[in-house]
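Data deposition worksheet. Section B asks for the primary sequence of the deposited chain exactly as it was used as input, without tags or linkers unless they were present during the calculation. Section C holds the resulting structure in token form. Section D is free text for depositor observations; keep each observation to a single sentence. Incomplete worksheets are returned to the depositor.
Section A, Depositor: J.P.
Section B:
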Amino acid sequence: MKEQQLTYVLPKGWIWTTLDKICYKITDGSHNPPPKQDNGIPMLSARNIENYTINFDKDLRYINEEDYIREKQRTNIEQGDVLLTIVGTIGRVSVVEQTQKFAIQRSVALLKPIFISSRYLMYYLSSPFSNKMLINNSKGSAQKGIYLSTLKSISIPITNLHEQHAIVSQIETLFSKIGESEKILKKASYSLKIYKQALLKDAFTGKLTNKIIKEGKLPNGWKIIKISNISNVVRGGSPRPAGDSRYYEGNIPFLKVKDLTKDEKVHLTTFEYTIKEAGLVKTRRIKPRTLLISNSGATLGIPKICLIDSTINDGIAAFLDLDDRSIYYLYYFFLLNTQKLRDISMGATQPNLNTTIIKNIELPYCSFDEQKQVVEIIESRFTLADNLGKTIDNVLNEIIALKHSILKNAFEGRLVNYTSNESAEKLLDDLKEEKRLYLENQKKINLSKPKPKKKMEEKQSIIDILKKSNSPISAQELWEKSTSEGDIERFYSEIKEIYHQIDELKSKTESLLTLKDEDK
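Section C:
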């Protein structure tokens, strides 16, 4: 039995059907998006679809009016339509509420419900049962996705329209009450992060250990030094070529940036990668209790105290010859200044902190005894804040579980007490008839469209088109000339069958396809 056909027992008056049977149309966005514009009409991707809302402020791509009109002819997005993410992060869903013009990319599916509450459909698609079906039926290795044919066959329980509205109303009443608590908890969680940063700032201006400090001055006995005054900052190294069996997969720990950034712990005690003895001459070995910092990439500036004998790659810097009494003091100093370090390298294609920059960073410095006091106060207050943070996280997780439980009960018919003689069977018959009329009307509209004046080219298979083409052609042109035009799934299925025979050439604006030389 296919996963999308799994069902459970429904109350009397309910019935199982499929998404295809309750929608006028199920399609997806553009597979070959038009060139980007600096402004214009938004073209949304999966990242713009958040659960129950559409974000028009996040990483928008814009297209011109002409391209929008072309996209609209295919999708015709309207109020009441349901948008569902089907590539990458699968299962985020929202209803189109606004009249703002926009188009969608292929990572977003469009569902046009017939006589079904749009919000009922939205909440069902976000329910644990539906989400499990979507994920279990996704395909792909690097990036998972749902084929439209699979999406159309996903099961959905329906009841009469009045009960649908009652269910939606109850869900939204409960979610609203829960949402207020959720907002308060998230605000408290954010406040804890601000508190910890403020605590670190006070630590390195001397305020944690000194009651009287002149504004803009350091306490007596403190001074500003450079990192190079107390430590030799060195960069790691990586045996080349990467992955070469002569150097890698040995028994010597080899740390990469993600070993430092995978969690927020002070200490690093585990590793994922290893090298062999032959790789030692091309990297740098460090002793236990060495302070490290990530110095390249988007996650640079993350400090860690390594407790294992290891080696480090060139994305990590190590603080050698550092007095052990200063190691935690310096750790918390860099924890305070992570964002400042990122700002230094802002704008670079690959953000990077070289050792010269790190050596010249200025550090408020005090005696070893006072450093110890500073660290003890930080750790004591961090522990209290972290424990409170864990409690907040646990409650937030319980809220998520409660929402899942509400949705589960809703679509098992156990959320509202609703008595009616109306049957979902009658609704299903109405849906079937309405869709039949819709498809007939669409057929008439298509037949009434003026035929192009130019002579229509004879449709050919994709392989024949590529064989006869003297130069690479775009996927759009291939689609228009092929026998698959009008059936996107058939088109991509045919492409998949011959993909090993195709070369993909990248231009500035699009991908061009051609047969490999031996296949021409």
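Section D:
The longest strand covers residues 248-255.
The chain has three domains: 3-160+420-447, 223-365, 462-519.
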